[in-house]
User: Fold this.
Amino acid sequence: MSDGAYSYSLTTFSPSGKLLQIEHALEAVNHGNSSLGIKATNGVVLAAAKKLAPLVDETSIERISNITHNVGAVFSGLSPDFRVILKKARKNAEKYRLKFGEEPSAKVVATYIGSLMQEYTQAGGVRPMGCSVLVAGFDHKHHVGELYQIDPSGSFWSWKATAIGQDSLTTKAFLEKRFRADMEIDDAIHTAILTVKETYDGVLTENGIDIAIVGERQTGQGDSAKVTPIEFKRLSVEEIKAYMAENE
Amino acid sequence: MSNIMNHNGAAMLAMMGKECVTIGSDLTFNTGMQHQGRVFKVFPVTDKILLGLTGLFSDCQTFYQNVMYEVKLLQLKEGREIQPQHFGVLVAHMLYEKRFGPYFIEPLIAGLDEDNKPYIANTDTIGCLTEPDDFLVCGTAAEKILGPAESFWEEDLEAEELFEATAQALLAGIDRDSSSGWGSVVYTLTPQKMVTRFLRNRQD
Assistant:
């Protein structure tokens, strides 16, 4: 059964040195719903467009998911592939917590997903993942946000703000113009909504977008100032609606 | 002398002070009723964590190698030092992994975290973690050190006073245990430095 050419990986170098299956996987990503991430001074915002057939119940679609209390991810591309990644990443994060008594940082999660994606480009009997992933987290020790992109090839790197999926080039160009290093979470949410709106086909409502945040919130002034962590959380439809109303 | 935990003999004591910890250990190495020589039973993990291991010394050496594999891998992967609190969980986790074929060791951990908060902990052979905020005893002389340690230890001792308390309690305990002795060593860990001092106790 395991004999013959078919037991080898389908991902084989072309004579020009390319891995065509990986490039095709990236093509699948570029056809997927668009997602974006923005680093703010006190957190990170993830957003994703939910462009669905008219009769689909949008509330049943979760584009953004949490991996630990402080790390979450969004994807563009094939959602079933992302589900596999999510399941494995969550298991790995829980194993890490069991072993060291603390949750892994976004970098550890991104590294793990990167290794996983790489494995699917080389192992036998599998195909590369058809999705790119943005991982967001917050380092409460140093008070900085973390935002990573992982591609089907397994390569991963960090962004201040980026977009993946459909129209990602246009979206990235828009973000380049809109990004400010001194933005707080609230400003970043507004920028995220504007950015999604830019390439959204039709009228964007609160049901057509998924938003999640992670970071910290400062309350009080002077001596009574206190920093409270915000765990990774998806905004409710009501919250998104309120932010969109502010944008008008 | 039929208990494998008492085969090699050991006396160990860790104390917590104000931004400092100490860990003291004897140096004896026995096989049953025979004395063989001297060994060090406290091992460095990072610049600010020490791991003392009592019990079967061969298991101590193997466990130290295995735990350092994990610690160094974490350092390489994440580019940061493991913190004492997380090291405690790691040790407990690794011991419980061998729940039904355990290492015959009782580890003692002492360290300072990145905020220089002192931390001491120990576990039983299968990784039940204890994290007190005063002192801990381990080894064949454990019961004999416990009493002196209770009377010498005070809250918020400075490094020098803490060393004195540790050394006195350790010496008093060792003198009442035939399985431990042959000199002792006390490590005093402060945010600035680690001081190693050898004690000459009874050589029999």
In short: The longest strand of chain A covers residues 209-219. The CA atoms of residues 178 and 191 of chain A lie 7 Å apart. The longest helix of chain A spans residues 79-100.
